Amino acid sequence: MWRPAVLALLLFLFIGKLYCDSGEAKKTQKGAAATNEASDQHRPSSEAHSQPAAPTGKCSYTFVVPQQKITGAICLSSKSLMSEDISGLNKTELANLRLELGEQQRQIEHIKQMVEVDGGIVNEVKLLRKESRNMNSRITQLYTQLLHEIIQKKEQSLEETQLENRLLNITAQVLKVSASNQELERKYGAMISLINNQSLAIARLEKQCLVNANGGQPQQAHPGQAESKNKSNSQADTSNEIQRDQTATLTDKQPQRGHQAIQPPPTSAASSPTESYIFHASVTKTAGPWKDCQHALEDGQTTSGIYLIRPRNVNQLLQVWCEQSYQNGGWAVIQKRQDGSVNFFRTWEHYKQGFGNIDGEYWLGLDSIHWLTTQDDYRLLVLLEDWNGRQVYAEYDSFRVENEREQYRLRLGHYQGTAGDSLSWHNNKAFTTLDRDHDAYTGNCAHFQKGGWWYHTCAHSNLNGVWYKGGHYRSRYQDGVYWAEFRGGSYSLRKVTMMIRRA
């Protein structure tokens, strides 16, 4: 093997270096050794004896290596080569490697610390996520409960709406029945009035005949005749009812008043619009008919009561309460509220025909008011009284109601009085009821105000509203009997009267 020879050569060179210059000789020796070793690895065995000369320096050597025949496999010791390579490494490079290694270790430590800190943050994030999930679950639960409550309220509102619709349907049916009864009562009243007039005419003729037969001397009337007259008066008195409230019984619709006069509480003589306007007079049936109450007053009828009125150019007999003692008389009462005994939340047909009790609360009827106010120039007087007894008035120098084609539109003149002007806002407005909506509001004002009136959007006055006892009332809407300029819309007045007279 050639390895021992190489080792011996290297040893020899190492010893010879002691005699040469330390730096140059050492470099030369290592270069020769490396060159020989590399040559031995790559050259064939036949050329092993011819070795190149070592580089020259201060000391030079020439060696002749005997040729050896290599018969086996060539084995290279990697351990010796690695040791030689390591021994040739630069110390600076090792130092640099150590510094880099230390730097990397420090970075690793820093990363470990960061991982530890990040681990705490991750745990906190996990806790926050868990709390967020819990909050979301709670919010979902609350939202579900809220939806359930909303659905329940909607169902309740739907049920209330259905009940209201049923109530309205029942009310409409009752009002239809009441309208039929009203028509029958009107016809009955007209017949009674005609019979009464004929009876009075017959009585006058009989009296005149008796006077003529006795040579001008009047004869005492027979008791049977007086009884007949009283009976006729009693029958005529029963016709003063236009329409009872829908809750009244049949016995209430035919009261037995007899021929005695109805005596309201007495009041002082009328001298100004602010005085008491509680009408006090006997209920009187006279022959008539007259054009209006002022015509009856001019004909000598100075007693307040029920009169037969036939407007000009109209073949209709009207029963009207004529107030002949207030401000020189001649006033026709077209509306009166005093005790809440009559329901004013009615249909178009009711307000058209009229309803109530002429000697109590009543509405004369839009047709009747139209016939009266279009035959001549009329003025309107509105009398108001609160629950403290304070009385005020509002007067308009012209008043007219158009026909049904014009939806009974209101025409008003100038205002004067002490109540404040709460009706001019309704001027030129059509009449509206619960089943005929002619107002300017998006809904039906009659449903909110619970009456019939010349609504706009909706009302500054509502004299046909709900009669609340005591004045101030609580309601979802302003539906009382109010005059906004006098005590406001949340105060229901005690007494209201609307009267007309020729201007």
From TrEMBL:
Its main location: secreted. Residues 30-54, 214-274 are annotated as: Disordered. Residues 1-20 form the signal peptide. One of its GO terms (cellular component) is fibrinogen complex. The keyword DNA damage does not apply. SUPFAM superfamilies: Fibrinogen C-terminal domain-like. GO terms for molecular function: extracellular matrix structural constituent; protein-macromolecule adaptor activity. Residues 284-503 form the Fibrinogen C-terminal domain. Residues 231-253 have a biased composition (Polar residues). Residues 215-226 have a biased composition (Low complexity). InterPro entries: FIB_ANG-like (IPR037579), Fibrinogen-like_C (IPR036056), Fibrinogen_a/b/g_C_1 (IPR014716), Fibrinogen_a/b/g_C_dom (IPR002181), Fibrinogen_CS (IPR020837). It is found in: Secreted. GO terms for biological process: blood coagulation, common pathway; fibrinolysis; platelet aggregation; positive regulation of heterotypic cell-cell adhesion. Keywords: Disulfide bond, Glycoprotein, Secreted, Signal. The keyword Signal applies. PANTHER family: FIBRINOGEN ALPHA CHAIN, FIBRINOGEN C-TERMINAL DOMAIN-CONTAINING PROTEIN. This is Fibrinogen C-terminal domain-containing protein. It comes from Erpetoichthys calabaricus (Rope fish). The lineage of its organism: Eukaryota, Metazoa, Chordata, Craniata, Vertebrata.
